[in-house]
Amino acid sequence: MLGEGIVKGLAETARNFLGSFVDEERLTTVEYPEERLPQAEAARNFPFLIYDGDDAEKGLRCVACQICEKECPPRCIHIEKSKDKKPDYVGKQQFYPAVFDIDVSVCMSCQICVEVCPFEAIRMDTQFELSTDDRFGGLLWTKAELAKTNEYYHSIHPTEAGETDARLDEEKAKVAAKAKPAEAEMQAKA
Amino acid sequence: MSLSFLILALLTLGGAVAAMTLHRLVHCVLALTVALAGLAGLYLNLGAQFVGLAQILVYVGAVAILIVFAVLLTRGAEIASQMDSSRQGRFSALAGGVATAAAVFAVLAWVVLHSPTLSAPAATMTQVAPQAAMQQIGDALMRRYVLPLEVMGLMLTAALIGAVILALEEKPEAQ
Amino acid sequence: MSAMVTRVVLEEEESARGVEGELLEISMGPHHPSTHGVFRMDVRLDGERVTRLKPVFGYLHRNHEKIAEKASYLAAIPYTDRLDYLCSMTNNWGYALAVEKLAGIPVPERAEYIRVITAELTRLQNHASLIGFLLQDMGASGTPLMYAFREREKILDLFESLTGARMMCNYMRFGGVRVDCSSEWLEAAQNIASSFPQFLDEYEQLLTGNEILMARTQGVGALSAELAVNAGITGPMLRASGVNYDLRKVDRYGIYDRFTFRVPLGDHGDVYDRYMIRLLEMRESVKILEQALAAIPEGPIIDPKTRLRGLRPKAGEAYGRIEGPKGELGFFLISDGSTNPYRYKVRPPSMINLTVLEDMCLGRNVADVVVILGSVDIVMGEVDR
Amino acid sequence: MTQAPVQQLDQIFVMLKHWLVGYVPAAAQPVVSSLLSVVAILALFPALFAFTTVLERKGLGRMQNRYGPNRVGPFGLLQPLADGIKSLTKEDVVPRTADKAVHFMAPLLLVAASFLAYAVLPVGRNMAAVNLDAGVLYFFAVGAVAELAVFMAGWSSHNKYSLLGAMRAIAQMISYEVPLILSSLAVIMAAGSLSTVEIAGRQAGYSGIWPHWYVLTPWGLAGFLLFMIAATAETNRSPFDLPEGESEIIAGYYTEYSGFKFALFFLGEYLGMFAISGLGITLFLGGWSAPFSFLTWIPSWIWFFAKLLALIAVFIWMRGTLPRLRMDQLMNFAWKFMLPMALLVMVSAGVWRFLPHGVLRWIVCFVMIAVPYVLLGRGLLQGKKIGKRTYRFAE
């Protein structure tokens, strides 16, 4: 009969109308920014650089190998290798990035840089409220802005950070087993 | 002559003049609508509610829209003025218009002068209450003039069916 | 002089078609509310009847194929996300399949299962939101779309917890998938699979029997099976025309031969059939999901021998194709032995399905054009690449 | 004058007006009296419009499982204020090639015509601005002016979408005016009057607790439904919102309007919707009378506005549910379904009048309407081969 389907549809919307007052499932809106959903642990937005210890300059894990720069699909990473070297986390003398810029207005948050990094130095941040009125400077992040502590990494991706640390510890242990005791001491100091 | 009559008469005449003189056809139609609405106002001013409202409903609501559609669906809307620009043509158009207007006016004047209401005492005219007037119209249509009404209805139905048939015939052509 | 409508001189083609009267030429788009992105149709109207329709696209061209030719095999994957940005999982899979064929990479069992699960979830959310968009084009003030998005949100949340991103998942890799899913994740997917039929019932209650929807869609935009096959139409649109062609059955790529599911087929090929086929396909997808979730084995998720970075397949070529939600999504790769493909070509189902738009629209009116376009299921990111 | 407090409350606005008018010299009293009515209408219905926009957005939101506006003021109630300020401060863009004068006048004419219609609506006992003997006729006559305004807007904008929208709108309004007037004709026949005040008055009695509303007869119910469907089309509301179908022709005849003129179109549209709902209430739902005899102590104007809000809610509900019809289907529906049904309702109303009271006339009138309804509905769908389908599956 004409109108049957229309009445059924009206009943359905009425059900949803009433349901939205009583049923959580039917009112899924989260009133950002007062309310926030818990962030998924795997969430990713833009990359940051990890450093160990307190000194961002000294503890930076990045050795300026430039793999991420090469692999980055939109080519938003710019690295300039340092002239001198500094010891990395296992104590080996390595280059470090004199300049490490990421243009986050170009970055597409794909995480390829994280995957290709052999030094566990770059990871994805979960920060997403990044609006700025400075279109160029504000969206070009330099090394100082990118560097974050390992603790911060632990706080946003605990599982992943745990796995990373385990891997690093293993590596360090390997190096330590091979290395002379003196060097091990030096590393402990560092 | 009351103030309201004056305003309405000016509106009607102004609309009519504008309908003749404006250049864009659509403007002319709109001006004509104003004239028709002014006429309806005059009826209402005279206390003829039914006629006045029917005038709006039919002329403003239907006839004006019909003209507008006709204007839209032909090329006319774009052409500013298709009037014959030659002097002679203009003159003959003017003469024709004046003659028509004079003829219409003469007929109307004759009808008004010979109408029985005018000879009747003025009091009966004003004393007819509007409600009674409406009932009178209904009574007259349904009793005294029922035959003309039916004939007109029949004619309109025939016209409607004719229009439907005309519209239907287009289909096979289009396919 | 008020040129209120562009008067078009009658062309021979029009008079040959028996069009009389004046024609109105309208450029629908690229900024039109229902062209699904920046898409333009040059429409010539006789009254409101379409006498010619020329789709114009390319507004969203991003040089996808050339970029991928200059990027490594790995770096092309995030770009495939952005083809059909509603279905990044299936895009990833299509590309991964092509590379796997090219380089002869095996895929572990668990990864295959995860791929099926994510692909079917993608299909669910794509079809549900497509129907919402279709109804939006029909003027249903957003209600079906909101219901679809309510469900889609759950699936996207699931994707986010697995891959870190809701739409640009960048999840599959040649040789497997990027990260493993937890048992909680599988449980959540199971919840969606078991609650989705209920949502579909609700959706059908709201829409399927609606007289207005039936009147608007039945007999509108009919596409014959012959034309569909000749034009290379694939996906639900082809099946709505009655051609039994589903790559999940034809190619049995991945592990689709292990699941029992049916392929719904339409008889009229009109918009209503396309709508119904999508609804029925969602029910079948739920069946696949249930089976895959029940049977998923433990194991590695990626082939350990595959080098993701600096992959250099032997010189040769390969064409990998999958049944995406929109149709056959194919990736054609030629390798010259270097780290980046020599040639990279996408077969975008959206674009190829769009080619018959004029044939479906001729003689219909503007309102139908919008609905027909909506039923094709296009995403301009994929059409223009 | 001693009146029961209930009656005093019922007549409070009437008394207020009398009291105010009493202060001016006798010569100016008619003018002041009508001015007061005008001011009341001008103040009340735009306020209702403002309230309805929130109601609509919130209602639609809830139907779609969202909150709707809830940021401005408590529960988002001040949202119309923000919208008003926004539309006032927006640039008023007039297309360069537009016919400026007509473009400017169109929204004004629309709003003016919509306001005029309220003159004859009895919003409570003794609460009609004027008691015209041809009230219903007046209402439709004024409504016809709106069509002209729509045409002016569409034509003067010099935009193809506007023109298409205007043509759709006019075709639709003319087509649906026929069933609209025919279905109200049944009531006019039954009431024997064209005066809205009188029609409302006729329905104010009760048998037992049940009111004498026309909607409570078989022909009245059918007439009411037809009237409301035609009213939906007449006011361009979903599912008949083709003239402004945003997915097809952007915004129809007001595509080229911005700023406050755009807001005026909205105002005009909603005012039209209230007015026609008000007429529907007056004709079928007993105007200001209470639904049960034991509820008559509630003031009449509250009943009127309660009914008005209920009808508005139905409008919103339909908008939240239904997709839009197509132009030819709209026309088919008007001429092949609405028109015959409206004629039948008229005949049925006549039969109702002349049959004796009792079960028989209920049955006769019901059958007279229900059987053609089923047949016509079936014809409408099956003639176009529209119906549910079954699908085959390949394994």
Q: Your description of this structure?
A:
The complex is a heterotetramer of chains A (190), B (175), C (385) and D (395). Chain A contains eight helices and six strands, in the order H-E-H-H-E-E-H-E-E-H-E-H-H-H. With 190 residues, chain A is an alpha+beta fold. A three-stranded mixed sheet of chain A has the order 4-1-6. Chain A has a three-stranded antiparallel sheet with strand order 2-3-5. In chain A, a hairpin with a 5-residue loop joins strand 2 (77-87) and strand 3. Among the domains of chain B are: 1-73, NADH-ubiquinone/plastoquinone oxidoreductase chain 6, subunit NuoJ (Four Helix Bundle (Hemerythrin (Met), subunit A), Up-down Bundle); 128-170. Chain B is 84% helix and 0% strand. Chain B is built from eight helices and no strands. Chain B has helices spanning 3-21, 25-45, 49-73, 87-114, 116-119, 122-127, 130-144, 146-174. The longest helix of chain B is centred in the last third of the chain and has 29 residues, at 146-174. Chain C contains 16 helices and nine strands. In chain C, the strands form three sheets. In chain C, strands 1-2-3 form a three-stranded antiparallel sheet. Mean pLDDT of chain C is 84; it is low at 1-19. Strand 6 of chain C pairs antiparallel with strand 3 of chain D, so a sheet runs across the interface.
